[in-house]
Description:
Elements: H1 7-10, E1 53-60, E2 63-68, H2 79-86, E3 92-100, H3 110-118, E4 126-135, E5 138-139, H4 145-157, E6 168-169
Parallel strand pairs: 4-6
Antiparallel strand pairs: 1-2, 1-3, 3-4, 4-5
Amino acid sequence: xxxxxxxxxxxxxxxxxxxxxxxxxxxxxxxxxxxxxxxxxxxxxxxxxxxxxxxxxxxxxxxxxxxxxxxxxxxxxxxxxxxxxxxxxxxxxxxxxxxxxxxxxxxxxxxxxxxxxxxxxxxxxxxxxxxxxxxxxxxxxxxxxxxxxxxxxxxxxxxxxxxxxxxxxx
Length: 170
């Protein structure tokens, strides 16, 4: 009998797809690492640290799933986020982001996000998207981060007028 793989063991594993062009079921997130100094050189990107839950959006046609960094499916907890993702003009995508609660000043609050989730009052939460890993059958993981971010920005900018993307931001 094959051994059971824990959800935590999935983090850091290779990306697996059933076939070329298929969307992977789960992509282990790239996590941050603590270092003594910042990297040097012009090839490094520095990004904001969002204080929320790491969340992946897996989109296949109208089937949208929100996955935690360990692969748990939390789609049912965040219907407003799912509605916004369904409005995007894409047939297939895997997007990395962070689920956050934002104050009026634009600051994240982990405790407010956690409280909203616990109270099942999540309409005010936002999914901050920061990386497009797969797009309409194309594996973008080998592309530079700058290119993936540009593609993600173009995707969000092409959302049709009037669509409900208020809970999604770049």
